[in-house]
């Protein structure tokens, strides 16, 4: 066995092993490469969003009119303020994360613990806000009518302010249909929640309110949605109205193209899932810090690695914020 | 373990004394950029509504400001500024090239499909 080769004679050379050509540890480098691939996944989603938007460039929902709510402020038109707040929370938690990394370089366990804790809190606030944002979006506000061709007709008054269905439509209590549940008939058939109103009731409501007009999805030269004349409004609803839509889900969307809701759920959902997993990983590292694992290792590089992931999540949000809410 | 950080941002225009100070400085910068974005998004100044290269000027401003923010998050929070040039290029150039390619292909195609709906025989109307 004395002839067994134990070394290759390339020690000390660049590819001889044992050195770090990129001056980064294996773990950190792999985190970077994971981030590259994840960034490409997100760009795929955002580019697909761009594709669908360019496809319906003249009828895409205007984000300012979709996300207008702020918690505890009912009926206040507050476009984007809440998302801006969410963005700030995430940037802030990125800052506490990088402060934790910095404290780790100084082997300051108490400070790492504190900053990791603050980062986790920031992440939780963000995920909670995201859930609230989803809830508001799903619940909807004004309601709309979907046409046979799948377009959305919304309602405005003569000054162009949005009018909710509940403000001019009266539900006829005599012909109310109950939601079919499995226990009430065929056990293998069920249906979703029924809209509060039927299309006929909307037609009656529209006929008896002279000041209500229909607004289409089409965006005009001034960047506003086109409003139909009174006669045209009645005609469109009567001839083409098919379903009353309240809120948004994967099939219908009272704000406009169903694709908008699909991409909203998919992209913010995927990002929210990243934030959630980031929080879980942060919690694991947080406990490791408390237990003194890295103190004994004399090296807080694990904090740095999760830090990279956490900043990446923030980075993605910056783009989601721009392409969903601003542009 | 040596952890030197490059403490200057804006090409050396602003220099910080410590890494912690730089972090807060970058936070202030990012907050200002976000605030500008939100204010522009709410005001939507008429002057910026003109078309530039197929998009509203305002949208270009948003995209540029976003890239600026992304740069400072990557360079200062993720410490890309302190990595070796080779690692930096491997990560950044690969990503940027592939993303630009993807965006070009998909937006081009989206615009084409829009024109087919608009001018072609396939219609999606009421």
Automatic annotation (TrEMBL), chain A:
TM helices/strands, residue ranges: 30-51, 80-100, 112-132, 263-294, 306-326
Pfam families: COX3
UniProt topology in membrane: Multi-pass membrane protein
Keyword Cell membrane attributed: yes
Primary site of residence: membrane
InterPro entries hit by this protein: Cyt_c/ubiquinol_Oxase_su3, Cyt_c_oxidase-like_su3, Cyt_c_oxidase_su3-like_sf, Cyt_c_oxidase_su3_a-hlx
Cellular localization per UniProt: Cell membrane
Heme-copper oxidase subunit III family profile domain sequence ranges: 1-327
Family: Belongs to the cytochrome c oxidase subunit 3 family.
Name of this protein: Cytochrome oxidase subunit III
Source taxonomy: Bacteria, Pseudomonadati, Bacteroidota, Flavobacteriia, Flavobacteriales
UniProtKB/TrEMBL annotation, chain B:
Membrane topology label: Multi-pass membrane protein
Subcellular location: Cell membrane
UniProt KW Transport keyword: no
Coiled-coil boundaries: none
Source organism superkingdom: Bacteria
Residue intervals passing through the bilayer: 23-43, 58-78, 90-107
Pfam families, A to Z: COX4_pro
Entries under InterPro entries matching the protein: Cyt_c_oxidase_su4_prok
Coarse class of the protein's main subcellular location: membrane
Entry keyword annotation includes NADP: no
Keywords: Cell membrane, Membrane, Transmembrane, Transmembrane helix
Organism in which the protein naturally occurs: Flavivirga algicola
Listed name of the protein: Cytochrome C oxidase subunit IV family protein
